[in-house]
Amino acid sequence: MRFCDRAPAMDRQWRAPTPLGVGLSYLPGVDPALYRSGLIDFVEISPDILCRPRRGGRGMQLDPRLLDSARDTCGDLPIVVHGVELSIGSAGRWNDDYVAILEAFQRTWPFQWHSEHIHFQTIDLGDGRGETDIGVPLPLPFSREAADLVAERAAALGALFGVPFCLENGAHYLGELPCSDGIADESAFLNRIAVGGDCGLLLDLHNLYCNAINNGIDAMAMIDRLRLDRVCELHVAGGHWANGYRLDSHNGRVPEPVWVLLDEVLPRCPNLGGVLFEIMPDHALEAGTGLIAEEIARARGAWEQHKTAKRAELCPA
User: Fold this and answer.
1) CATH fourth-level superfamily of 19-306
2) Closest-CA residue to 70 (of 48, 55, 86)
Protein backbone atom coordinates (compact mmCIF):
# COMPACT_ATOMS: atom_id res chain seq x y z
CA MET A 1 0.00 0.00 0.00
CA ARG A 2 1.33 3.43 -0.95
CA PHE A 3 1.30 6.50 1.23
CA CYS A 4 -1.12 9.15 0.06
CA ASP A 5 0.27 11.95 -2.05
CA ARG A 6 -2.11 14.33 -0.31
CA ALA A 7 -1.53 15.10 3.35
CA PRO A 8 -4.24 14.83 5.99
CA ALA A 9 -5.72 18.21 6.86
CA MET A 10 -4.37 18.02 10.40
CA ASP A 11 -0.70 18.31 9.36
CA ARG A 12 -0.90 20.94 6.66
CA GLN A 13 0.91 23.49 8.83
CA TRP A 14 4.16 23.26 6.92
CA ARG A 15 5.21 25.78 4.26
CA ALA A 16 5.29 24.28 0.76
CA PRO A 17 7.54 25.84 -1.91
CA THR A 18 6.48 27.76 -5.00
CA PRO A 19 7.09 25.54 -8.07
CA LEU A 20 10.10 26.78 -10.03
CA GLY A 21 10.94 24.04 -12.54
CA VAL A 22 14.37 22.64 -13.42
CA GLY A 23 17.56 23.79 -11.74
CA LEU A 24 21.33 23.48 -11.70
CA SER A 25 23.91 23.84 -8.95
CA TYR A 26 26.02 27.00 -8.97
CA LEU A 27 29.31 25.89 -10.54
CA PRO A 28 32.17 28.41 -10.26
CA GLY A 29 34.33 28.35 -13.36
CA VAL A 30 31.67 26.99 -15.71
CA ASP A 31 30.71 29.20 -18.66
CA PRO A 32 28.18 31.71 -17.26
CA ALA A 33 26.28 31.54 -20.54
CA LEU A 34 24.86 28.22 -19.32
CA TYR A 35 22.86 30.13 -16.70
CA ARG A 36 21.59 32.64 -19.27
CA SER A 37 20.63 30.10 -21.92
CA GLY A 38 17.03 29.63 -20.82
CA LEU A 39 17.71 25.98 -20.00
CA ILE A 40 17.21 26.39 -16.25
CA ASP A 41 14.61 28.01 -14.01
CA PHE A 42 16.58 28.30 -10.77
CA VAL A 43 20.04 27.88 -9.26
CA GLU A 44 20.96 25.97 -6.12
CA ILE A 45 23.83 27.47 -4.13
CA SER A 46 25.88 26.11 -1.25
CA PRO A 47 26.88 29.25 0.70
CA ASP A 48 30.02 27.63 2.10
CA ILE A 49 31.68 27.79 -1.35
CA LEU A 50 31.28 31.58 -1.21
CA CYS A 51 33.15 31.87 2.09
CA ARG A 52 36.69 32.44 3.34
CA PRO A 53 38.20 31.98 6.81
CA ARG A 54 37.23 34.72 9.24
CA ARG A 55 40.16 37.00 10.08
CA GLY A 56 40.99 37.12 13.75
CA GLY A 57 38.27 34.65 14.70
CA ARG A 58 36.92 31.16 14.24
CA GLY A 59 34.75 29.91 11.42
CA MET A 60 34.04 31.32 7.98
CA GLN A 61 32.46 34.44 6.54
CA LEU A 62 31.00 35.34 3.16
CA ASP A 63 33.55 36.65 0.68
CA PRO A 64 32.08 39.72 -1.13
CA ARG A 65 34.09 38.98 -4.28
CA LEU A 66 32.85 35.39 -4.52
CA LEU A 67 29.31 36.52 -3.75
CA ASP A 68 29.36 39.21 -6.46
CA SER A 69 30.71 36.71 -8.98
CA ALA A 70 27.90 34.27 -8.19
CA ARG A 71 25.27 36.99 -8.52
CA ASP A 72 26.70 38.07 -11.87
CA THR A 73 26.54 34.48 -13.11
CA CYS A 74 23.03 33.73 -11.86
CA GLY A 75 21.52 37.04 -12.96
CA ASP A 76 17.82 37.25 -12.21
CA LEU A 77 17.29 33.51 -11.73
CA PRO A 78 15.63 32.53 -8.43
CA ILE A 79 17.97 30.78 -6.02
CA VAL A 80 17.62 28.10 -3.39
CA VAL A 81 20.21 27.11 -0.81
CA HIS A 82 21.64 23.64 -0.23
CA GLY A 83 23.78 23.34 2.89
CA VAL A 84 26.39 20.75 3.76
CA GLU A 85 27.92 22.10 6.98
CA LEU A 86 25.02 22.35 9.45
CA SER A 87 25.41 18.87 10.98
CA ILE A 88 21.78 18.93 12.07
CA GLY A 89 21.98 15.49 13.67
CA SER A 90 24.92 16.11 16.03
CA ALA A 91 24.00 15.13 19.57
CA GLY A 92 25.36 18.25 21.27
CA ARG A 93 24.54 21.08 18.89
CA TRP A 94 24.45 22.00 15.25
CA ASN A 95 27.01 24.24 13.53
CA ASP A 96 26.17 27.72 14.80
CA ASP A 97 28.77 29.27 12.49
CA TYR A 98 26.94 27.91 9.44
CA VAL A 99 23.61 29.30 10.68
CA ALA A 100 25.25 32.72 11.02
CA ILE A 101 26.57 32.47 7.45
CA LEU A 102 23.10 31.55 6.20
CA GLU A 103 21.56 34.52 8.02
CA ALA A 104 24.09 36.87 6.40
CA PHE A 105 23.50 35.26 3.02
CA GLN A 106 19.72 35.68 3.24
CA ARG A 107 20.08 39.37 4.08
CA THR A 108 22.21 39.82 0.98
CA TRP A 109 20.52 37.43 -1.45
CA PRO A 110 17.07 36.10 -0.47
CA PHE A 111 16.33 32.49 -1.40
CA GLN A 112 13.11 30.62 -2.18
CA TRP A 113 13.79 27.66 0.11
CA HIS A 114 16.75 25.96 1.74
CA SER A 115 17.80 22.40 2.46
CA GLU A 116 20.30 20.37 4.43
CA HIS A 117 21.51 16.79 4.74
CA ILE A 118 20.28 14.52 7.53
CA HIS A 119 23.58 13.49 9.05
CA PHE A 120 26.10 14.39 11.72
CA GLN A 121 29.76 15.26 11.25
CA THR A 122 30.74 16.52 14.69
CA ILE A 123 31.04 14.76 18.05
CA ASP A 124 31.84 15.84 21.58
CA LEU A 125 35.04 14.17 22.80
CA GLY A 126 34.31 15.14 26.38
CA ASP A 127 37.40 17.32 26.65
CA GLY A 128 35.50 20.52 27.36
CA ARG A 129 36.14 21.94 23.91
CA GLY A 130 32.69 21.23 22.52
CA GLU A 131 31.98 19.66 19.15
CA THR A 132 34.86 18.38 17.01
CA ASP A 133 34.60 17.81 13.25
CA ILE A 134 35.14 14.14 12.43
CA GLY A 135 35.85 14.85 8.77
CA VAL A 136 33.10 12.74 7.24
CA PRO A 137 29.29 12.92 7.37
CA LEU A 138 27.67 9.90 9.04
CA PRO A 139 24.05 8.71 8.98
CA LEU A 140 21.77 8.70 12.01
CA PRO A 141 20.11 5.60 13.47
CA PHE A 142 16.42 5.34 12.62
CA SER A 143 15.11 6.01 16.12
CA ARG A 144 12.51 8.32 17.63
CA GLU A 145 15.18 10.07 19.67
CA ALA A 146 17.20 10.94 16.56
CA ALA A 147 14.12 11.85 14.52
CA ASP A 148 12.73 14.12 17.22
CA LEU A 149 16.09 15.85 17.71
CA VAL A 150 16.29 16.66 14.00
CA ALA A 151 12.60 17.63 13.83
CA GLU A 152 12.97 20.15 16.66
CA ARG A 153 15.91 21.78 14.90
CA ALA A 154 14.12 21.73 11.54
CA ALA A 155 11.17 23.58 13.05
CA ALA A 156 13.54 26.17 14.50
CA LEU A 157 15.17 26.73 11.11
CA GLY A 158 11.80 27.12 9.43
CA ALA A 159 10.82 29.77 11.95
CA LEU A 160 14.18 31.54 11.76
CA PHE A 161 14.37 31.95 7.99
CA GLY A 162 10.69 32.17 7.12
CA VAL A 163 10.95 30.10 3.92
CA PRO A 164 10.40 26.38 3.27
CA PHE A 165 13.06 24.11 4.72
CA CYS A 166 13.67 20.53 3.61
CA LEU A 167 16.01 17.70 4.56
CA GLU A 168 17.80 15.32 2.21
CA ASN A 169 18.03 11.55 2.44
CA GLY A 170 21.65 10.49 2.46
CA ALA A 171 23.84 7.86 0.81
CA HIS A 172 25.88 5.67 3.16
CA TYR A 173 28.00 2.54 3.02
CA LEU A 174 27.31 0.95 6.40
CA GLY A 175 24.78 -1.72 5.49
CA GLU A 176 21.46 -1.88 7.30
CA LEU A 177 21.16 0.94 9.84
CA PRO A 178 19.65 0.23 13.26
CA CYS A 179 15.94 0.91 13.79
CA SER A 180 14.19 1.29 17.14
CA ASP A 181 11.23 2.78 19.00
CA GLY A 182 8.71 1.55 16.46
CA ILE A 183 10.40 3.17 13.44
CA ALA A 184 10.62 0.44 10.85
CA ASP A 185 12.83 1.96 8.17
CA GLU A 186 14.20 5.13 6.61
CA SER A 187 10.84 6.14 5.16
CA ALA A 188 9.21 6.11 8.58
CA PHE A 189 12.20 8.03 9.96
CA LEU A 190 11.93 10.73 7.30
CA ASN A 191 8.15 10.93 7.64
CA ARG A 192 8.42 11.48 11.40
CA ILE A 193 10.96 14.27 10.92
CA ALA A 194 8.90 15.99 8.21
CA VAL A 195 5.68 15.99 10.24
CA GLY A 196 7.29 16.73 13.60
CA GLY A 197 9.54 19.45 12.16
CA ASP A 198 6.93 21.13 9.93
CA CYS A 199 9.40 20.75 7.09
CA GLY A 200 9.75 19.18 3.68
CA LEU A 201 11.97 16.52 2.17
CA LEU A 202 14.61 16.70 -0.53
CA LEU A 203 14.57 13.30 -2.20
CA ASP A 204 17.95 12.61 -3.78
CA LEU A 205 17.33 9.81 -6.26
CA HIS A 206 20.98 8.99 -6.84
CA ASN A 207 21.47 8.61 -3.08
CA LEU A 208 18.51 6.24 -3.08
CA TYR A 209 20.00 4.33 -6.02
CA CYS A 210 23.35 4.04 -4.20
CA ASN A 211 21.67 2.68 -1.07
CA ALA A 212 19.69 0.19 -3.14
CA ILE A 213 22.91 -1.20 -4.58
CA ASN A 214 25.22 -0.91 -1.60
CA ASN A 215 22.85 -1.71 1.27
CA GLY A 216 20.09 -3.81 -0.31
CA ILE A 217 17.41 -1.10 0.03
CA ASP A 218 14.29 -1.56 -2.10
CA ALA A 219 14.12 1.88 -3.72
CA MET A 220 10.55 1.60 -4.98
CA ALA A 221 9.28 0.28 -1.66
CA MET A 222 10.88 3.23 0.12
CA ILE A 223 9.22 5.66 -2.28
CA ASP A 224 5.85 3.97 -1.76
CA ARG A 225 6.14 4.40 2.03
CA LEU A 226 7.37 7.98 1.92
CA ARG A 227 5.22 11.05 2.50
CA LEU A 228 5.55 12.32 -1.07
CA ASP A 229 3.32 15.30 -0.29
CA ARG A 230 6.30 16.58 1.73
CA VAL A 231 8.84 16.30 -1.11
CA CYS A 232 9.90 19.85 -2.04
CA GLU A 233 12.80 19.03 -4.35
CA LEU A 234 14.23 16.11 -6.32
CA HIS A 235 17.92 15.65 -7.09
CA VAL A 236 19.36 13.63 -9.95
CA ALA A 237 23.10 13.13 -10.24
CA GLY A 238 25.85 10.85 -11.48
CA GLY A 239 28.41 8.80 -9.61
CA HIS A 240 30.99 6.10 -10.14
CA TRP A 241 31.93 2.58 -9.08
CA ALA A 242 34.83 1.80 -6.74
CA ASN A 243 35.65 -1.58 -5.17
CA GLY A 244 32.15 -2.89 -5.81
CA TYR A 245 30.39 0.16 -4.32
CA ARG A 246 28.34 2.81 -6.04
CA LEU A 247 29.67 6.19 -4.88
CA ASP A 248 27.63 9.37 -4.78
CA SER A 249 30.39 11.46 -6.34
CA HIS A 250 28.24 13.78 -8.49
CA ASN A 251 30.33 13.29 -11.60
CA GLY A 252 29.11 12.84 -15.13
CA ARG A 253 25.83 11.60 -16.47
CA VAL A 254 22.82 10.45 -14.49
CA PRO A 255 22.52 6.63 -14.70
CA GLU A 256 19.45 5.23 -16.39
CA PRO A 257 17.94 3.67 -13.22
CA VAL A 258 17.85 7.15 -11.64
CA TRP A 259 15.90 8.52 -14.61
CA VAL A 260 13.46 5.63 -14.14
CA LEU A 261 13.02 6.62 -10.48
CA LEU A 262 12.42 10.23 -11.54
CA ASP A 263 9.66 9.23 -13.94
CA GLU A 264 8.05 7.17 -11.18
CA VAL A 265 8.19 9.68 -8.35
CA LEU A 266 7.83 13.08 -10.04
CA PRO A 267 4.09 12.91 -10.80
CA ARG A 268 3.40 11.71 -7.26
CA CYS A 269 4.85 14.81 -5.54
CA PRO A 270 2.04 17.40 -5.46
CA ASN A 271 4.08 20.08 -3.66
CA LEU A 272 7.28 19.77 -5.67
CA GLY A 273 9.29 22.95 -6.12
CA GLY A 274 11.82 21.68 -8.63
CA VAL A 275 14.12 19.03 -10.08
CA LEU A 276 17.85 19.70 -9.91
CA PHE A 277 20.75 18.21 -11.84
CA GLU A 278 23.59 18.03 -9.35
CA ILE A 279 27.27 17.89 -10.32
CA MET A 280 30.41 18.91 -8.46
CA PRO A 281 32.28 21.97 -9.82
CA ASP A 282 35.49 20.10 -10.66
CA HIS A 283 33.58 17.37 -12.44
CA ALA A 284 31.49 19.98 -14.26
CA LEU A 285 34.62 21.47 -15.80
CA GLU A 286 35.69 18.01 -16.95
CA ALA A 287 32.23 17.11 -18.29
CA GLY A 288 31.74 20.33 -20.22
CA THR A 289 28.67 22.45 -20.80
CA GLY A 290 27.41 20.19 -23.59
CA LEU A 291 26.91 17.21 -21.29
CA ILE A 292 25.41 19.40 -18.56
CA ALA A 293 22.95 20.93 -21.02
CA GLU A 294 21.89 17.46 -22.20
CA GLU A 295 21.19 16.26 -18.66
CA ILE A 296 19.24 19.44 -17.87
CA ALA A 297 17.22 18.98 -21.05
CA ARG A 298 16.31 15.43 -20.03
CA ALA A 299 15.24 16.63 -16.58
CA ARG A 300 13.19 19.32 -18.32
CA GLY A 301 11.48 16.68 -20.42
CA ALA A 302 10.47 14.77 -17.28
CA TRP A 303 9.23 17.97 -15.61
CA GLU A 304 7.17 19.01 -18.64
CA GLN A 305 5.71 15.53 -19.01
CA HIS A 306 4.74 15.00 -15.39
CA LYS A 307 4.21 18.36 -13.71
CA THR A 308 0.54 18.42 -14.68
CA ALA A 309 0.05 14.67 -14.30
CA LYS A 310 -2.90 13.55 -12.25
CA ARG A 311 -2.04 13.05 -8.61
CA ALA A 312 -1.97 9.51 -7.38
CA GLU A 313 -5.26 8.34 -5.94
CA LEU A 314 -5.68 8.44 -2.20
CA CYS A 315 -4.60 5.35 -0.37
CA PRO A 316 -7.25 3.29 1.35
CA ALA A 317 -7.49 3.91 5.08
Assistant:
1) Divalent-metal-dependent TIM barrel enzymes (3.20.20.150)
2) 48
